[in-house]
Design brief:
With about 100 residues, this protein is mainly alpha-helical. It contains five helices and no strands. The chain has helices at about 20-25, 35-45, 45-50, 55-60, 95. α1 (about 20-25) packs across α2 (about 35-45).
Protein backbone atom coordinates (compact mmCIF):
# COMPACT_ATOMS: atom_id res chain seq x y z
CA UNK A 1 0.00 0.00 0.00
CA UNK A 2 1.43 3.39 -0.98
CA UNK A 3 0.48 6.51 0.94
CA UNK A 4 0.20 9.83 -0.84
CA UNK A 5 0.19 13.40 0.38
CA UNK A 6 -1.20 16.55 -1.15
CA UNK A 7 0.27 17.00 -4.60
CA UNK A 8 2.29 20.14 -4.88
CA UNK A 9 2.39 20.78 -1.13
CA UNK A 10 6.13 20.18 -0.89
CA UNK A 11 5.55 17.81 2.04
CA UNK A 12 6.58 14.13 2.03
CA UNK A 13 3.93 11.78 0.65
CA UNK A 14 2.62 10.47 3.98
CA UNK A 15 3.12 13.63 6.03
CA UNK A 16 0.24 13.89 8.48
CA UNK A 17 0.81 17.65 8.67
CA UNK A 18 -0.34 18.07 5.06
CA UNK A 19 -4.00 18.87 4.43
CA UNK A 20 -4.46 15.33 3.07
CA UNK A 21 -2.83 13.89 6.21
CA UNK A 22 -5.05 15.94 8.50
CA UNK A 23 -8.13 14.86 6.53
CA UNK A 24 -7.01 11.23 6.83
CA UNK A 25 -6.72 11.58 10.59
CA UNK A 26 -10.12 13.33 10.78
CA UNK A 27 -11.66 10.37 8.97
CA UNK A 28 -10.82 8.06 11.88
CA UNK A 29 -13.70 7.40 14.30
CA UNK A 30 -13.71 9.85 17.20
CA UNK A 31 -10.87 12.01 15.87
CA UNK A 32 -11.76 15.70 15.75
CA UNK A 33 -9.75 18.70 14.68
CA UNK A 34 -7.82 19.04 17.96
CA UNK A 35 -7.02 15.32 18.01
CA UNK A 36 -5.87 15.40 14.37
CA UNK A 37 -3.57 18.37 15.00
CA UNK A 38 -2.10 16.74 18.12
CA UNK A 39 -1.57 13.37 16.41
CA UNK A 40 0.03 15.02 13.37
CA UNK A 41 2.32 17.07 15.60
CA UNK A 42 3.53 14.07 17.59
CA UNK A 43 3.69 11.33 14.94
CA UNK A 44 4.42 13.41 11.84
CA UNK A 45 4.00 10.63 9.28
CA UNK A 46 1.45 7.92 8.57
CA UNK A 47 4.23 5.36 8.98
CA UNK A 48 5.05 6.56 12.51
CA UNK A 49 1.36 6.73 13.43
CA UNK A 50 0.69 3.23 12.10
CA UNK A 51 3.75 1.82 13.91
CA UNK A 52 2.55 3.26 17.24
CA UNK A 53 0.55 1.06 19.57
CA UNK A 54 -3.06 1.96 20.40
CA UNK A 55 -1.80 2.83 23.89
CA UNK A 56 0.74 5.31 22.48
CA UNK A 57 -1.98 6.89 20.33
CA UNK A 58 -4.29 7.11 23.35
CA UNK A 59 -1.55 8.85 25.35
CA UNK A 60 -1.30 11.52 22.63
CA UNK A 61 -4.95 11.93 21.64
CA UNK A 62 -6.69 11.05 24.89
CA UNK A 63 -8.89 8.54 23.09
CA UNK A 64 -8.58 5.08 21.62
CA UNK A 65 -7.47 5.17 17.98
CA UNK A 66 -7.27 1.54 16.92
CA UNK A 67 -7.37 1.97 13.14
CA UNK A 68 -4.43 2.73 10.92
CA UNK A 69 -4.35 5.86 8.80
CA UNK A 70 -3.91 6.01 5.05
CA UNK A 71 -3.21 9.34 3.42
CA UNK A 72 -4.83 9.60 -0.01
CA UNK A 73 -4.08 12.21 -2.65
CA UNK A 74 -6.04 15.43 -2.89
CA UNK A 75 -5.78 16.43 -6.52
CA UNK A 76 -7.07 19.85 -7.42
CA UNK A 77 -4.40 20.56 -10.00
CA UNK A 78 -7.03 22.14 -12.24
CA UNK A 79 -7.38 24.94 -9.66
CA UNK A 80 -11.00 24.09 -8.87
CA UNK A 81 -10.36 23.73 -5.14
CA UNK A 82 -7.70 24.54 -2.62
CA UNK A 83 -7.12 23.02 0.79
CA UNK A 84 -5.19 24.74 3.51
CA UNK A 85 -4.03 22.80 6.56
CA UNK A 86 -3.25 23.94 10.09
CA UNK A 87 0.50 23.52 9.47
CA UNK A 88 0.56 25.45 6.15
CA UNK A 89 2.27 28.85 6.12
CA UNK A 90 -0.89 30.51 4.76
CA UNK A 91 -3.15 29.25 7.57
CA UNK A 92 -4.66 32.32 9.28
CA UNK A 93 -2.87 33.15 12.56
CA UNK A 94 -6.16 34.29 14.11
CA UNK A 95 -7.60 30.80 13.63
CA UNK A 96 -4.50 29.15 15.13
CA UNK A 97 -5.11 31.15 18.30
CA UNK A 98 -8.69 30.00 18.94
CA UNK A 99 -9.48 27.16 21.35
CA UNK A 100 -10.60 24.68 18.67
CA UNK A 101 -9.02 25.62 15.31
CA UNK A 102 -10.15 23.75 12.20
CA UNK A 103 -7.51 21.29 11.00
CA UNK A 104 -8.25 21.98 7.33
CA UNK A 105 -9.88 24.89 5.51
Amino acid sequence: MTDHGLRGSGLPAADLRSPAGLLALRSLPGVGDQHAIRLATVFGTAEAFNAASPQERRAVAGLAVDRQVRVVPVDASDGSARTLGYFDAGYPAALRDIADPPAVL
